[in-house]
Amino acid sequence: MWRSRNNDARDLDIPLVQSNDVVAPPQPPERVAPESRAGCWYTITFGWLNKLIAEGYRREQRRSRSGNEPPEGPLALTEDDLFELREDDRPEYLMKIAAENWEHEKNLPDDQRSLRRALRKAFGYTYLCAAFFKFIYDSLQMVGPFVLKSLLGYLNECKDGACEAREGLQWVGILFASNVLQTVVLHQYFHRCFRSGMRLNAAAIGLIYGKSLRIAGAGKAADKRAGANGAAAGAKTEQQRTSGEIVNLMSVDAQRLQDFLTYAQTLWSGPYQIIITLIFLYYVVSWATFAGVAVMLLQIPVVTMIAKRVKAAQKDLMKIKDERIKITNELFNSMRLIKMYGWEESFQKRLDDIREKELWYLRRYQLLDIISRSIWTIAPLLTSIATFAVYIWLNKDHTLTAGVAFSAMSLFNVLRFPLTMFPNMVTSAVEANLAIKRIESFLTSGEIKGRGQTASPTALLGAENASSGSSPPAVESVPADASASSTSSTAAISIKEASFEWPGGVPLLGNLSLEVPKSEGSTGSRGHLTVILGGVGT
User: By C-alpha distance, which of 442, 426, 204, 419 is closest to 311?
Assistant: First the structure.
């Protein structure tokens, strides 16, 4: 007979299991993430990935040479070849720091509580470092157009061969060094952005899953008391949380937060890029710059109106999606009953109707999103046309030199990214704000009393009795030296005519009598493992 090696006094004997001693398998050697031990140069160049890339290349070469012969080893990278996660990237660590910061927020008043602030405290440092790299990259982007204008001016003066080659090589060297530095900084920026998004996603899923184990769901509505002095001011039945909504929170809303965090820096870097680009454009094309600014300003009211409509459409879409997942789960859980009564067609029609409604909302949302993207896609083109037209009109010679044209086009290419991404990120920010509000609303829902703490059966039953006002159910723990003639001498736990209910007064079990027999050969009150099978156990 196998016995649990837990020191808890409530250890159980599990019969019908082989009694051989269980030997723990040997632990594999500890693996350390190479990124944690990488030096400055390997961190900048991602050299800590060289070993994995080289091994993948060797196995690809082995696969190409093997043909029909048996391979000498693996032909591709496997899961065992992947590096270990850093300690601060492990889910248990992310969940821990996120839960600690959220617990601190939960102690604040309702109007001051913020999940956004809790997540910012937990993962904000890495994202702040990414903002520093983003600022450097955006500033370096202005070097290219300036050097290009100077280089073209140098080449225009060298028609007669009277210029020095050293000056031209100097401009080329500056342009090369600037591009290399931009590449290094950009990859460091994205590495930290993706890492922050991954951490946020994992922490959000962990918080939602942990809350789902304690939330007062169907038939378990908790009373929510309000009052400044702690006195009961009323009871409020909280919104019922369905499994479909919880799945959506973990799969859709948490992923939306990760997607938003990847390019969220555009919300501040976009205006910064636009401003410094317009300054350099003024240096290149003078007053013609304001023609392009006027074109961009005319587009802002249109995009703002569309962003509001996108927000409303996305909110309606999430509601109908929750309803569709709820109905789908109910259908699968009740499939046997549906087949027994022949309700397939009616349930299929109900599911098809809700799906058609969801598709209608999805079409509306996608149409508004396409309109928003289209407006900002043609924005750089309209800006360029307006700027060059006004520049030629204001220029006395009505000429457009190569230096001015290429420098201006280079600046317009820089301007294209913030003009394209900024409105998209405004829409994503609206969606992420809605997602974080949905998650925060879920995390602040009522919980089952005592679910987050350990209590003895007697204490739990006593608490239920205190809340319901009924007589306490009988719970008897049989001592080891009980008389053999006693009715319950063979029982480790005995419950007689007990009644149970959820917080809020919803009945669960009534007039329950149960005896857990003692394990054979046991000298204490250790009982058999007792399992309830079937619908009554759910």
Answer: 426
Question: Whole-angstrom Cα distance, residue 328 to residue 348?
Answer: 10
Q: Which residue has the tokens 């982007």?
A: 141
Torsion over CA: 74, 75, 80, 83 (sign)? positive
The residue with tokens 């937060």 is: 257
CA distances from 415 to 186, 275, 276, 278, 306 (A): 17, 10, 10, 9, 22
CB 434 within 8 A of CB 314: yes
SS (H, E, C) 302-342: HHHHHHHHHHHHHHHHHHHHHHHHHHHHHHHHCHHHHHHHC
- Check if the beta carbon of residue 192 is closer than 8 Å to that of residue 129: yes
Q: Which range (216-220, 362-366, 396-400) has the least confidence?
A: 216-220
How many Å apart are CA 428 and CA 75, to the nearest integer? 41
Q: What is the pLDDT of residues 492-534, one digit of tens each?
A: 788 888 888 776 667 777 888 888 887 766 565 666 777 776 6
pLDDT of residue 239: 58
Q: Which residue from 436, 449, 443 is spatially nearest to 110, judged by alpha carbons?
A: 443
Nearest to 338 by CA among 353, 351, 325: 351
CA–chain centroid gap for 465, Å, is 41
**DSSP summary character for residue 239:** P
Residue 339 burial by Cβ neighbours in a 10 Å radius (0-12, 13-18, 19+): exposed
Helices (H), 378-456: 379-394, 402-443
**β-bridge mates for residue 498, sequence order:** 512
Distance CA 289, CA 281 (A): 6
pLDDT digits (tens, 9 = 90+) for 213-268: 887 754 344 444 333 333 333 333 455 677 778 888 888 888 888 889 888 898 99
Query: Which residue, chain included where needed, has tokens 């927020």?
Result: 105
Is residue 538 pLDDT above 70, yes or no? no
Statement: residue 193 has pLDDT above 70: yes
Contacts of 243 (CB under 8 A, 6+ apart): 325, 326, 329
The phi, psi pair for 152, rounded to 5°, reads: -70, -35
Per residue in 141-155, pLDDT (tens digit) is 988 888 888 888 788
Q: How confident is the model at residue 231, as a pLDDT? A: 36
